[in-house]
């Protein structure tokens, strides 16, 4: 019997012709974005604004960053759950995560760099990371404009939403333990943001769950990033968009790093009236404070609960 054919992620081109608002190319890409997020919760974005040279520079910078002593990396703290340094308690080299809040602000990036390299020998870490953050934030804004527009949400609401976004750039470093079979390094989860944009180093391992409990390995194309919907976008869309359930699985002794840009609303997220009707789509979520969602998750963890994929429904569901 033939094994079931694995589904592929939708691929959407974000070349210059598709980025010109009001054109036929924009409209076609906009429809593809909405369809992909509703059906899969994610898609591959071909986005050559981030050059191969910049990508190489970013991952070289991350290699230097993660080579720092653990005590230095632990200085990357945050009051918000998941925003600062996180590592595997047994062996930090297995899984490490770090982050820069407000990463589109060069001063915040410099502050992080100064924390890691007090002597100033950061090899232009700030410039490289800030350039990457700006380009990824521009891609996120194009995606969110397409989403708002596709649902008929007025432009002023979209502009106000974008003005209220804070971008968190996270760096991930994984090493699979020395076992024979593939190992799940990052267990299945959804992101807590609105939208996340991820690119791995040359070693991949990202898998997404699209349907029927099938785990699909993400085959990255040159100049591509995976764009994933988070919990907050599901709530904003009144359940029209599904968050992307994903995990990381790697071969023995492999090393993998990745960069992840996540968008968060600084205030209260309101479900647009355009997405609510009394018949098929009654309001399923109350207005919610997005960053406070992390404090809700923190309290759940402190009481011994696991962060489940339906946590947003417990937080602000009607």
TrEMBL record:
<feature type="domain" description="Fe2OG dioxygenase">
    <location>
        <begin position="164"/>
        <end position="266"/>
    </location>
</feature>
<dbReference type="GO" id="GO:0009805">
    <property type="term" value="P:coumarin biosynthetic process"/>
</dbReference>
<comment type="similarity">
    <text>Belongs to the iron/ascorbate-dependent oxidoreductase family.</text>
</comment>
<keyword id="KW-0408">Iron</keyword>
<dbReference type="Pfam" id="PF03171">
    <property type="entry name" value="2OG-FeII_Oxy"/>
</dbReference>
<dbReference type="InterPro" id="IPR005123">
    <property type="entry name" value="Oxoglu/Fe-dep_dioxygenase_dom"/>
</dbReference>
<dbReference type="GO" id="GO:0046872">
    <property type="term" value="F:metal ion binding"/>
</dbReference>
<protein>
    <submittedName>
        <fullName>Probable 2-oxoglutarate-dependent dioxygenase AOP1</fullName>
    </submittedName>
</protein>
<keyword id="KW-0479">Metal-binding</keyword>
<dbReference type="Pfam" id="PF14226">
    <property type="entry name" value="DIOX_N"/>
</dbReference>
<keyword id="KW-0223">Dioxygenase</keyword>
<dbReference type="InterPro" id="IPR050231">
    <property type="entry name" value="Iron_ascorbate_oxido_reductase"/>
</dbReference>
<dbReference type="InterPro" id="IPR044861">
    <property type="entry name" value="IPNS-like_FE2OG_OXY"/>
</dbReference>
<dbReference type="GO" id="GO:0002238">
    <property type="term" value="P:response to molecule of fungal origin"/>
</dbReference>
<keyword id="KW-0560">Oxidoreductase</keyword>
<dbReference type="InterPro" id="IPR026992">
    <property type="entry name" value="DIOX_N"/>
</dbReference>
<dbReference type="GO" id="GO:0016706">
    <property type="term" value="F:2-oxoglutarate-dependent dioxygenase activity"/>
</dbReference>
<dbReference type="InterPro" id="IPR027443">
    <property type="entry name" value="IPNS-like_sf"/>
</dbReference>
């Amino acid at each position: 019997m033939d094994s079931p054919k694995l589904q592929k992620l939708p691929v959407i081109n974000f070349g210059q012709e598709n980025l010109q608002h009001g054109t036929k190319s924009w409209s076609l890409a906009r429809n593809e974005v909405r369809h992909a997020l509703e059906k899969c919760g994610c898609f591959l974005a071909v986005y050559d604004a981030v050059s191969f040279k910049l990508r190489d520079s970013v991952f070289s910078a991350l290699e230097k960053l993660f080579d720092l002593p653990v005590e230095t990396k632990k200085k990357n703290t945050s009051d918000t759950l998941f925003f600062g340094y996180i590592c595997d308690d047994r062996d930090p080299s297995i899984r490490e995560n770090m982050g820069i809040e407000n990463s589109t602000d060069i001063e915040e990036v410099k502050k992080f760099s100064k924390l890691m390299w007090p002597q100033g020998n950061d090899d232009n870490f700030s410039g490289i990371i800030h350039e990457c953050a700006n380009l990824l934030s521009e891609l996120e804004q194009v995606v969110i404009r397409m989403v708002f527009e596709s649902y008929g949400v007025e432009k002023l609401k979209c502009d106000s939403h974008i003005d209220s976004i804070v971008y968190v750039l996270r760096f991930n470093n994984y090493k699979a333990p020395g076992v024979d079979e593939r190992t799940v390094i990052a267990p299945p989860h959804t992101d807590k943001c609105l939208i996340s944009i991820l690119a791995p180093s040359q070693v991949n391992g990202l898998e997404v769950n699209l349907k029927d409990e099938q785990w699909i390995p993400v085959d990255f194309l040159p100049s591509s990033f995976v764009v994933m919907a988070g919990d907050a976008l599901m709530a904003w869309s009144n359940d029209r968009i599904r968050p992307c359930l994903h995990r990381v699985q790697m071969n023995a002794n492999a090393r993998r790093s990745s960069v992840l840009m996540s968008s968060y609303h600084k205030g209260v997220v309101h479900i647009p009236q355009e997405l609510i009707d009394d018949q098929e789509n009654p309001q399923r979520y109350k207005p919610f404070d997005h960053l406070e969602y992390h404090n809700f998750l923190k309290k759940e963890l402190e009481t011994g609960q696991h962060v489940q994929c339906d946590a947003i429904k417990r937080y602000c569901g009607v």
